[in-house]
Amino acid sequence: MSKHTYLHPEPFVFENGKELTDLQISYETFGKLNPDRSNVIWVCHALTANANVLDWWPGLFGTDDLFDPNDYYIICANVIGSAYNSSNPLSINPATGQPYYLSFPEFTVRDLASAHQFLADHLDIKRINVLIGGSLGGQQALEWAASNTISVDHLIVVGTNAVHSPWGIAFNESQRLAITTDRTFYANHPDGGAKGLKVARAMALLSYRNYTTYANTQKEDDNEKLDHYKASSYQNYQGEKLVNRYNAYSYYFLTKAMDSHNLGRGRSSIESALSSISCPTLVLSVNTDLLFPPQEQQFIAQHIPNARYQEIESTYGHDGFLIETTKLTQAISHFLSDHKVYAAELV
User: Fold this and answer.
1) Binding site annotation covers 319?
2) Annotation says 182 is catalytic
3) Annotation-wise, does 338 bind a ligand?
4) Active-site option among 82, 87, 114, 135
5) For a Cys-Cys bond, which of 140, 143, 231, 307 suits 44, CB 3.0-4.6 Å?
6) C-alpha span between 15 and 106 (Å, rounded)
């Protein structure tokens, strides 16, 4: 594992026309690039993840896993807005000498893909063997593939969509309402909005899981209990857990970026944008996903010419894309072997 920081030498122009004069992208690499640079696996992370894909996607990425650093050159970069050292609302604004906070430029998923194209150019990566992402990362991977700015041999997206749904936007707006109700969010302090962020995360968790998940993991054994329920403790715990590693400003801006996701913007249609993706594509869904239901992945697969669709059975809802790594490994390994991609050939 190797940690790096890329400093973009020119002003970065966002889709809305605003600029960031000192774009910084934090990224990590695993493994070694082979002589013909054909073994690149580029991972686009989800909403609050970091660049250490071996940490948050174990079972799929790691020694002796499907994507083994001994076989591949794996790159995972933090997106703009991320709390993990890429340019974000807590970065210092050179014009004021203070953090940006709410003055940070609003950005889109297309901006996330554009920034990582600059990183790929910097790394002299002209070909990605496998571009993979789930959720927000899947949105970014689709946008990047549709932009046709880099050669992608194989595209894999999990639990994502071609345009963010009214349902998903409603969840995100409800979370932002919770954050902005916390008056400290406007106090221009790194911990601003922390209580609101805790509530937002508890709300988000309901969309990541489902009725069955909670029934299986948070059911009470004591019929006499009147308070301090497992489900209540779980919501509090998950909220505090995020507050301890993230900030409300990054969360606020990144949920807005998710809302912006629409492959059809500036193109003739969503369908035509998908049809422009020519590489073999694997589209995976989780059958119990409430936030990105399977019909959204079916739509993607129907309009990418060389796409394969597969549904993963799981009780974990949207979080199944992070948890069901054994099933993901099976589906992805079959897809890659059918397209004659073998790790031994890449090293």
Assistant:
1) yes
2) no
3) no
4) 135
5) 140
6) 9
The 8-class DSSP code of residue 334 comes to: H
Cα–Cα distance, 183 to 186 (Å, whole number): 6
Q: Which amino acid is at 146?
A: A
At 316 the three-state DSSP class reads: coil
pLDDT tens digits for 254-307? 999 999 999 999 999 999 999 999 999 999 999 999 999 999 999 999 999 999
93 φ, ψ to 5°?
-80, 115
Residue type at position 267: R
Average the pLDDT over 32-57 and give the result.
97
**Domains of the chain with bracketed CATH:** 2-165+263-346 (3.40.50.1820), 168-218+227-257 (1.10.1740.110)
Tell me the whole-structure pTM to 2 decimals: 0.95
Q: Is 82 a catalytic residue?
A: no
Q: Is 65 a catalytic residue?
A: no
116-155 tens-digit pLDDT = 999 999 999 999 999 999 999 999 999 999 999 999 999 9
| Secondary structure percentages of the chain, helix, strand, coil, to 5 | 40, 20, 40
Catalytic residue of the set 182, 289, 303, 314: 289
